[in-house]
Every structure is written in structure tokens, then in C-alpha cells.
Amino acid sequence: MASYSCPGKIHLIGEHSVVYGKPAILAAIDRRTYVSVRKDRDEKITISSKGFGSFHGSVKDCLDFSGRLDSLHGKGDFKKLFAAVRKTPSSSLRALAGKAAKELGIEEGFSARFKSGIESNAGLGSSAALSLAFTKSLASCFGIRLGDKKAGKISLSVERLFHGRPSGADTAICQRGGIIWFRKGTVKSLNGRKKEILLVRTKRESTTGEMVAKVKAMDPQKRIAIMDELERLTFEMRKHVSKRGNEKTVDIFNSAQQSLRALGISTPKIGRICDVVREIGGGAKLSGAGGGGCVVCIHNDLRSLGKALRREGFHPERALVGERGLRLFKP
Ligand code: MEV
Hints:
Blueprint: E1 2-13, E2 24-39, E3 44-50, E4 55-58, H1 59-75, H2 78-85, H3 89-104, E5 110-116, H4 126-141, H5 148-163, H6 169-176, E6 179-183, E7 186-190, E8 195-202, H7 208-216, H8 220-240, H9 247-262, H10 268-279, E9 283-286, E10 293-298, H11 302-311, E11 316-321, E12 327-328
Parallel strand pairs: 3-5
Antiparallel strand pairs: 1-2, 1-12, 2-5, 2-6, 3-4, 6-7, 8-10, 8-11, 9-10
The chain binds (R)-mevalonate.
């Protein structure tokens, strides 16, 4: 049996602009997904999970399904692809298992167990964490040695079935942990301090792929100007991310949120949360694709921030930023 865990993530800055070749800064958080895989004698794949549903089917069926999904991806038919992958919770698991097995050349049966502490569809990188922890566990269980680069590559190819053309930033932070500077093709660990933040969840109706498509459909002139501003803010954030105080990052967070709102990916509820945080001198922004999901809130006094948010009917949760990346664990 082989078992790996991966952390969830937040975008400190640079979501969406990273899709257009700009840099982003991401941090791993103390919410993790745990995966264990063991070989089975029959040619079946069995997946049981807390939070992701369950699946039981033949290896051949999973590999065939993954082939059909690859062909939809190849044609760029993301509408049909996402409909097939998300038809039921078990079709997502069938896609995940089939694609990872296909990429690793595995044609034998196995059982997998998942346990996730990362809420899905919340902008916290749950699918990247699951894809990577699963890919590593499956490979290791079948004695396939995967270096970091290869593991990241295969995991990203699994992610593509869920998100179309992800930038790879979520996979990179889940793998490295800590805080990273990411630009397509480059990953660098930054010397950030472990910091506490507050997360406020909001319901998310749209998928990452849909939000990326929405940004793509906007007026190109307007989009380019916003992406340039986000890039400027990302370079600014890099200068301050390892410093003790929050003063500068608070301002950068609030400016980034304005830019993300101008991209049309914020929601009225996210706006209300950000207003509360700003009013008491903190910084807040959405994290990830938007259209709902988690709002990341920072302040020098998290107790007062928490009280202010609760007074307005929100439910903030503490999270630690800068956690460890992909890890073996003993189940
Ligand atoms: C999703 O977590 C972040 C986006 O920038 C998409 C991506 O990087 O692939 C919206």
C-alpha cells in the first residue's frame, strides 16, 4: 500500500492573470487530502472516500472512459468533457482513476481510499491536491518511481479533465508547499513566514473552466489593462510576502480584489465580506477562479477581524499559510 497527502492552497495574488502568462503567488494551507492505494487481485478499481463519493468498475472500462475524455479534450470540446466528467460523483472518480492509470501504464486492479479536509469547488485547490496525491500513491503502489517533474506533469494531465487548460499553479503549490512564485514554466519557493489568515466560504455556482472562459470572453483591451495591473501588484507583493507586518500586503490584497472585481469574477457576497474587512483596516480578496469560493482575509488582529465578520453574519475559519507540500503518510 502507498499513501500520500497534499495540502490545499490559496492564491495570495495572480489568479486568472497567470493564465495569460503573468506571475502568481500561492501558498499551501493546513487543510489536506489523504490518499491510500493498494493493489487488488481482480481487474477492478474500487474507490471509497469521505467527501468525494465512491466508485467500482473494471480497469478496462476506466481506461476506455479516459480515452474518450482525452479525445474530447483534444478537440477542445470542454462543454461535453465537463458534462461527462461531472455527470455523477462516481464519473469524476472513474475519470481520475482511468486517466492516472493510463498515464502510468497500469492495467491491473487496485483499491483507493480518499479523505479530504479541503472543500471542493471553493478555490482551495482540492482537485489538484487529489490528483497529485492519487497519482503519487498509485505510482508508488505499483513500484513506479516518479520524480517531482513527472508526477507534476501526470497530475496536471489529470487536472485537465476537470478544468480544461489549467495553468499548473495549483499543482505546483500542492507539490512544493510553503509559498511559491509561479509563472508558466517557472516555479520558485519564496521565503514566506507561516502566517494565520481567516477564510470565509461562499457558495460557488460556476466551475473554474467557466470562470476562465468568462474572462476570456471580455473586451481584450480592458482585460489586458487589468492583467497588467495584476502583474504590477504581484511584483509588489513579492517584495513584502516574507516581511513580518501586514501593512503593505493589506493594501495589495484590496487593490487585487478591485482588479478581480473588474474582471467580473467577484460576487455581491464576496463584495460584502471584503467591505467588512476593509472597514476595520484589513485586506481581503477572493482566491482562485472566483464566482464564489473562499475569501482570504488578513489583519494584524485576527480576533477583532473574526468578531467583525461574525457580527455581520459570516463564518470565518482560521487557516495557517505556508504548510508542507506533498508528503508520504502512515494511514
Ligand atoms: C484556479 O485556481 C486559478 C485560475 O488562475 C486558473 C488556473 O490557474 O489554471 C483561475
